[in-house]
Amino acid sequence: MFYEPRLDNSGLAIDPLKALVVPRPIAWVSSVDLAGRVNLAPFSFFNLVAEAPPIVVFAPYGRKRNGEIKDTKVNIEAVGAFVVHLATWDLREAMNASSAQLPHGTDEAALAGLEMVPSRLVAAPRLAAAPVALECRYLKTTDLPSLDPDEPNGVIFGEVVGIHIDDGLITAEGRVDIARAKPIARLGYSLYAAVTETFRMTRPD
Ligand SMILES: Cc1cc2nc3c(=O)[nH]c(=O)nc-3n(C[C@H](O)[C@H](O)[C@H](O)COP(=O)(O)O)c2cc1C
Q: Which GO terms label this protein's molecular function in UniProt (predicted)?
């Protein structure tokens, strides 16, 4: 089959787009507003896009059902800091709960019973339970085209300035065995994948 997204003519019951670009890592992002109120939300339009220095990008698109721009975007642009956490199998329910669309200023971490601790280098606190946390300094927002002028599209770039890794993930050989953390990733519809096994392939050159 073939379809054109702008024509929405797949003929399928549900637009399959998000079931095709998979698995998407989940940035579980904490931020604070100018009053210091904590916010936590997951974003699967996310990736690492540079290494030296490390830079991440994610897309808090559209608006919440109450019409507000997503709190994560507003906070990061105002304060200039955020933390990206690895979403894991053990934390899956809390991660999902933190995606609830709540009015600005509501602390999803507190609602999900998650402990936040101060970060080392940035104003946004981090989740104590997350085995990996990337402290990020906001770099810039790039606006993108949107089919609906009332639903903004854009991506946020941040430089990773500090990295926390649970010592339990580090092997005797000095590598990170990420499968121990059972990361979860987003598929389409309401589906997720969990990384529980890995395989090795070496490059030809
Ligand atoms: C696994 C998962 C991935 C999500 N990915 C995105 C995303 O990439 N972009 C987005 O705007 N919303 C995404 N959402 C929805 C947001 O988490 C949701 O809109 C949230 O309320 C935003 O919170 P905030 O207003 O506190 O920033 C995702 C939700 C889940 C559960």
A: FMN binding; oxidoreductase activity, acting on the CH-NH group of donors, NAD or NADP as acceptor
